[in-house]
Structures are given as structure tokens and as C-alpha cells.
TrEMBL record:
<dbReference type="Pfam" id="PF13751">
    <property type="entry name" value="DDE_Tnp_1_6"/>
</dbReference>
<feature type="domain" description="Transposase DDE">
    <location>
        <begin position="333"/>
        <end position="454"/>
    </location>
</feature>
<protein>
    <submittedName>
        <fullName>IS1182 family transposase</fullName>
    </submittedName>
</protein>
<dbReference type="InterPro" id="IPR047629">
    <property type="entry name" value="IS1182_transpos"/>
</dbReference>
<dbReference type="InterPro" id="IPR025668">
    <property type="entry name" value="Tnp_DDE_dom"/>
</dbReference>
<dbReference type="InterPro" id="IPR008490">
    <property type="entry name" value="Transposase_InsH_N"/>
</dbReference>
<dbReference type="Pfam" id="PF05598">
    <property type="entry name" value="DUF772"/>
</dbReference>
<feature type="domain" description="Transposase InsH N-terminal">
    <location>
        <begin position="5"/>
        <end position="100"/>
    </location>
</feature>
<keyword id="KW-0614">Plasmid</keyword>
Amino acid sequence: MTRFRLSERVPTHNLYRRLAELVDWRFLYEETKALYSHTGQPSLDPVVFFKLVLVGRLENLISDRRLVEHCALRLDILFFLGYEVDEELPWHSTVSRTRQLFPAAVFERLFDHVFAQCVAQGLVAGDTQAVDSAPVKANASLEAVLEKGQVSARGPLLVTGELVATAPAAHLVTAPAHQLRNLATAQARRQGTQSGALGAQHDKARLLSNKTHYSPTDPDARISIKPGKARALNYLCSLAVDTAHGVISHVQADFADSRDSLHLPRLLTGLQQRLRAQQLRMHELLADAGYANGLNYALLEAQQVTAWIPVFGQYKATIEGFTYDAEQDVYHCRAGKALPFRKCDMTADGTGLKIYWATCSDCQQCPLKSTCIPGAKRKQLTRTLYDAPYRRAWQRQQSRQGQRMRRVRQGTVEPVFGNLIQHYGLRRMNVRGQAGAHKTMLLTAVAYNLKKLLKHRVNRQVSLAMALPQPILALIRRSQGPTGRP
């Protein structure tokens, strides 16, 4: 009779054996208790489910079908899941349905549990966080996008010249009129410049936009483009990474058609809550110029957080020919005339502005009028409503510490994104909807942090083994001869 035990076949140094001992997975039963009925056929065990999908992240597998096939061939993974060699693993469809059943709060709880262990092991300092974002391909094709409908004056929905009864609100054109006009102008200019190119008049050569098109397969996916990359349906993965040891402290799935700066307030709220729960406080935030926003600067200053975020390229700290008096909030021109603050205004996109202008009499009698404002009655300056926080951020950017912080950010969060995309299955979504994308990103971050925990434990054991007491070192030296040999 052949005697076979998985526990004896999987070595102690194996990744999944150490992972099974690292985390106490039993808390997941309490977190998912309300989602299971006490009657009926037993469903997939929640601990087995989370271990299974984590294996998919660790093995860089996107497909649930391939994941189950892969796990069935690995003895160490079967041991990690608690299965025997002759037991059949769950169907891939069961894994997909269970993922949809569990709310994102359960995945957040698992992330918090692993993050707390990282804090307990001293891997998280909390005082300096680096933030960045990257697009992740959605589980939808750009070839299948449809044009959004418009509500006609009489009420019914108008789609490409035909009337239909009803349609979801997400499938209606909701962009302001000035944005649609700008889009039409850009499309006409694009078709005019490419009129001689092969295929320029084809229907697929049109400029697709989220304002006028949507994906029926995944309505939450957004058309986005990065410099040097093709236009595609994406989600935006926003990360916060602790600079001490590169542990991911926050992750969220955002729509990919908006600026990074618009997602920072929500990211900051979740990050601060997680740090406060671990008795940590953030003092500095590192990000690239995509997060430069007057509201973000003011928000971080209100929370007493130093923002190492380069100002946007269009912002100018000084205006040539004018000096600014911060106490009086007034500008002075070369002729010494004052341009005091007059009123606040707002652009069509909701950007707050401060407007300064001189009196007409001062400008009409000025000898410099022909070189300053030859065709206007008076000189007017327009500044952002958050000019003071912008100015302080610009000054930090020019300092030597600002240059060092830029290098710290590049060496912290950008390598993390490279690892998640290339080695943890985040190159493409295998689910649909923003909620599903958020769950997938949370699982990817959990797998990455677990690897950090395992490596830290190994390094600590090695360092302890090398730290020999002084009496033993003296005894070894005495036992050696003049040549250093016994």
C-alpha cells in the first residue's frame, strides 16, 4: 500500500507553505457569514476562494479557467488550498460567480488585514507616501463601441437618426455643448489633415470619445490614450505606496477618462483612514504633475501634509513685467500702476479664477500702452483661485529637496506598477464593471504585499543567524592560527 501525504511532499521553504502559515485566514468566515445561507447545498468555501484568486495573482494568471487547470497540477498549491490530490477543484464558473457575490468591502477587509501585518513587521512608516496611476486594459473591445443617443426636443431618445423607446442614462450624451463643439472641431480638423491617407475616410477612422460613445460590453470602461500607446478601453489603477519598503498602502479603480488630479481627494480619504487605523500619520505626499491641482494643494495644506507635486506646465509663478504684493493682493506694472483684485470668475469647466485689472484712466494715459495693451482699454490679469498654494508648491519644486523627492517617487511607485502589470496579472481585466476592477486591483495589491512580508521574514532570519555573540567570535579567533586557519 502506497502512503502519500501532501504535507510531507511540500518542503518547508516553499512559497505557498510559508504563505499558509503567514496569514490566519479564518477571519474571512466571519466577514462572509451574512452572504451564505444555513440551508441548501454548500457553496464554495470563502477561504478557498480567496486563496484561489490570490494564486492567480501570484502566478500571473488572468483566466479563471486556466487558473483552475494550473492549480490541479501543482502539489504545493493543492496543499495551500487544503485539497488532496484526488479531490476535484471548484469549477471556474463557480469562482466567477463567487467573485460577483462578495462585495468589495470583503476584499478591502483582506487588504487591511495584510496591511496591518506589514505595519506590525515594521515595513510601513506612514510618514511619506508616493502616489501614481496607470491604465489597465478593460475586458471589452474598442471595435464594439456604440454611439450614445441624444434626447430630442419632443422627449423620445434619438439614436443615429432613429427613435427608440428607452435607454439607460449612461447611454445618453451628457457632455456640455461647448465640449461637443470642441470635439466636432477636432474631428473635422483630423479628417481634413488625413484626407489623403489610406483609410482616412473609413468609419473606424473617426475620433472616438467617451462623450459620444460607450461600450455595451462594459459601460464602465472608458476610452483613454497615453503618449506612445494606442487608444483603448481602460480602467485607471490609482496606487499609494509607502516609501519605507515599497508596501502598497492604498489602491482603487477609477474611470480612465478623467485627469489624475480629480481622483486624488478620494484616494487621500481612503489612505488617511487606513493610516489612522494603524496609528500612523502622513506628513508628505509625492506625486507627478498629473496630480497638480489647486484644490489638491489646498486640501493637503489643510491636512498639514506637504505636497511634493510639481505644478502643471502652464502655470507661471511670475508674470513678466509685473510684481505681486501678497499682503495687499495687488499687482504693479512697470509704470507703477496698481492692478488690484476685482472679482472671482469660473471657466466653463468649473475652474475658479481671480481677475485683476487697472483703471481705464491709468492705462489710457500710460506711455507704455502701445507695447502693453495696444488694442484694449485697460490691462487685465487672470490668475487661478489657488494661486498661493500653487506658488508654494512651485517654490518647493525648485528646491534641492524637491529634486530629491522626485527621484524618491520615481524609485518607489513606478517599479511597483511595473511589477503589478508584468508579474501579477494586472495587464488586463478578466472582469467587467468598476466594482469588479476594484476587487481585482485589491487582490493584486494583497498578493504584492504578501510577497513583501515573506521576503522580510527570510531576511530577518538570515540577519539573526549572522549576528554572533562577541564571546563566540573571540573563541573562534583564538582557535585560529596566525594565518587565520585552525
